[in-house]
Amino acid sequence: MASLLMEVPVLVAANTPMPMKKVEVSDPAPHEVRVKMAASGVCHSCLHAYDGSHETPMPMILGDEGAGVVESVGSAVTTLVPGDHVIISWLLNCGTCAQCLRGKPAYCYGPSPFGAIGFDNTGRFTDVETGKPVLHYGPATYAPYVVVPATSAIKIRKDMPLEKAALIGCSVTTGFGAVTNAAAARPGDSVAVVGCGGVGLNSIQGARVVGANPIIAIDTSDAALEMAVKLGATHTINPKKVDVEKEVFKIVPHGVDHAIGAVGSVPAFLNGMNILGPGGTLIILGAPGNGDKMTIDPIFHVLRGERGMRGSKYGSANPATEFPMLIELYMAGKLDLDSLLTASYSLDEATKAFEVLAKGGAGRGLIKF
Ligand SMILES: NC(=O)c1ccc[n+]([C@@H]2O[C@H](COP(=O)([O-])OP(=O)(O)OC[C@H]3O[C@@H](n4cnc5c(N)ncnc54)[C@H](O)[C@@H]3O)[C@@H](O)[C@H]2O)c1
Ligand SMILES: [Zn+2]
Ligand SMILES: [Zn+2]
C-alpha cells in the first residue's frame, strides 16, 4: 500500500467554480478501507455547502452519496477485502457506542465526521501544491479514492450496477426510510411529500411500496411532479399554481397521516404541518439555510389533533441492513432507480452539476468516474 495521487474538485469559496486540484489520499488506518469510487450522486446537501446556504469550512472535498470497489484495507479489517463492491454510508458512525449497537447509527454519540474523517479527527487528504490538509464533507465521495471506516463501507452484491447503487448512499435511503422507518406508514395511510427531488421522489417510492393511498406529490417543478407520478404518486400539486392546503383537503378532507418535508424550506415545512390530519406527523428531511426559524402554533398545530413533527436523518435507517434490502427491492423490480438517473457528469463537471441542480428539474444527477 502507498498513498495515491488524484485530481479532484475542491470547494475553495462559496458559489465559486470548484478548481480541479492534485490531492494525495493516504493509506487506510488499521480500521479503515480505501475505496475506488465508481459513481457519486449529486445531493442538495452538498449544494447547500457550495452555495453558502450552509456554513462550510474550506478547502473541502464534497460528496455524500456514492459507491465503488474496495482498493485496500487497513491491517485490522476482517470484514472486507480488496475487490468487494460497497456503498458508502455518510454517517461514518463509530459502530461501538450504545446507539450504534442498538441499530440506531443516526444517533451515534461519536463526534460529527463532517470536516474530518474517522474518529481521530485527522484528515486523509493533502493538497499536493500547498502541503496543507483538504477537509472531507463526510465521506467526500467526489474524490476518486476515499478512505472511510470499514463500518461505513457496506458490502453489496456484485451484480448490482454501481451507478444505481451510488444513489442508495443518500437520496434513496433517506427518502424511502423517512416513510418506512420514521413515519412508519402503513397500507392505506395517506402520505404527502413536499419537495419531490432526489430525496422526495424516494419518499414517493417508499409510500408506494408500503401501499399508502393517496400519495400526494407537491413540488414547484412540473417535471418533478411528472416523475413523481411515474414513481407512484396518485395526485400532484404545484404550489406555484394553486393553494397547496386547499388542494390537499379536497383530496383528503381531514388531512394526511404523514407529510414528508423533503426540501430545505420553512414555508414548505409549514405547508406540511398545515395539511396534517389528526394524529398526523410531519417528517423533516430538508435542511433550510443556517439560522432559519419556523414558527408553529402549539394549540393549532400540535395539541389539537395530537399532531407532531420529527426529524429524520438518513431516513432513520441502519445502512448496514437497509442498503442490501433496497438493492433486493431494486433487483426484484419493486424499487425504480433507473428512472431517477436523469443526468450524468464527468468529475471536472461537478460545478456544472450543482448549477443544474440549483435550477431544479427532475431526478438525480450522477458523477461517473
Ligand atoms: N435528512 C437527511 O438525512 C438528508 C439527506 C439528504 C438530503 N437532505 C436534504 O433534503 C433536501 C432535499 O434534497 P434533494 O437532494 O432531494 O434536493 P433537490 O434539489 O433534488 O429537490 C428539492 C425539490 O424541492 C422542490 N421545491 C423547491 N421549493 C419548493 C417548495 N417551496 N415547495 C415544494 N417543492 C419545492 C424543487 O423543485 C425540487 O424538486 C435538501 O435540503 C438536503 O440537504 C437531508
Ligand atoms: Zn445527501
Ligand atoms: Zn456510535
Distance between the termini: 22 Å
Q: Return the CATH topology of the largest domain.
A: Quinone Oxidoreductase, Chain A, domain 1
Global structural class: alpha/beta
SSE series = EEEHEEEHEEEEHHEHEHEHEHEHEHEHE
Total separate domains:
2
- Got a strand count? 18
Question: What radius of gyration results from the CA coordinates?
Answer: 20 Å
Return the CATH architecture of the largest domain: Alpha-Beta Complex
What attributes characterize this protein structure?
369 residues, alpha/beta, Quinone Oxidoreductase, Chain A, domain 1, Rossmann fold, 2 domains, seven-stranded mixed β-sheet, six-stranded parallel β-sheet, 18 strands, 25% strand, binds nicotinamide-adenine-dinucleotide, binds zinc ion
SSE arrangement:
Elements (H helix, E strand, L loop, with lengths): L3 E6 L10 E6 L6 E10 L2 H8 L8 E2 L4 E8 L11 E4 L9 H4 L23 E3 L5 E4 L8 E5 L3 E3 L6 H7 L2 H12 L8 E4 L5 H11 L4 E4 L3 H9 L4 E3 L6 H8 L4 E6 L4 H9 L1 E9 L13 H6 L4 E4 L7 H13 L9 E5 L4 H10 L4 E5 L1
Parallel strand pairs: 4-8, 11-12, 11-14, 12-13, 14-15, 15-16, 17-18
Antiparallel strand pairs: 1-2, 2-7, 3-5, 3-9, 3-18, 5-6, 6-10, 7-8
The chain binds nicotinamide-adenine-dinucleotide and zinc ion (ZN) (2 copies).
